[in-house]
Design goal:
The chain contains 6 helices and no strands. The chain is mainly alpha-helical. It has one domain. The longest helix is centred in the first third of the chain and has 28 residues. It is globular and about 55 Å long.
């Protein structure tokens, strides 16, 4: 308990966490729309997800990119969990982490999230503002 009080009363740590939260917040405001606009219109219309852009690369490059993408996703996941109790966009950061991480059932989870009415309306609004057609879902 004393360690927690000492950690919270450490100004350098609090400033660092505050800056990290602010950077993640601003980054998520830029990254989320960019990612949403890059989703192909028919991405969710199939039973299985589309192949990744680097699927045709040399196996060493493909594995290196996969490992780096998952490490970045893990960092975002840990930051998102921390931001659930610290200032910042915890849920948004966790959503970014889920997009980056690879795990069984990820495509079904993405479809389920994007089919939620509030998420779908927001995504369609962003795409409409950018002159892109709305996402097509197989019902």
């Amino acid at each position: 308990m004393d360690d927690l009080v000492q950690m919270i009363s450490n100004p350098a740590l609090m400033w660092t966490l505050g800056i990290v939260s602010l950077v993640c917040f601003i980054g998520s405001l830029l990254v989320i729309p960019w990612l949403v606009l890059r989703i192909p219109v028919d991405y969710f219309s199939g039973e299985y997800r589309h192949p990744v852009p680097w699927a045709e690369q040399h196996p060493v490059i493909r594995w290196l990119l996969l490992i780096l993408k998952n490490l970045l996703g893990l960092v975002f996941l840990l930051l998102g969990i921390a931001m659930l109790v610290l200032p910042g966009q915890g849920l948004l950061t966790i959503l970014i982490a889920l997009v980056l991480l690879n795990f069984p059932g990820k495509y079904r989870l993405e479809r389920r999230i994007f089919m939620m009415p509030s998420v779908r309306q927001g995504v369609d609004w962003l795409r409409r503002r950018a002159g892109r057609p709305p996402l097509v879902f197989k019902d």
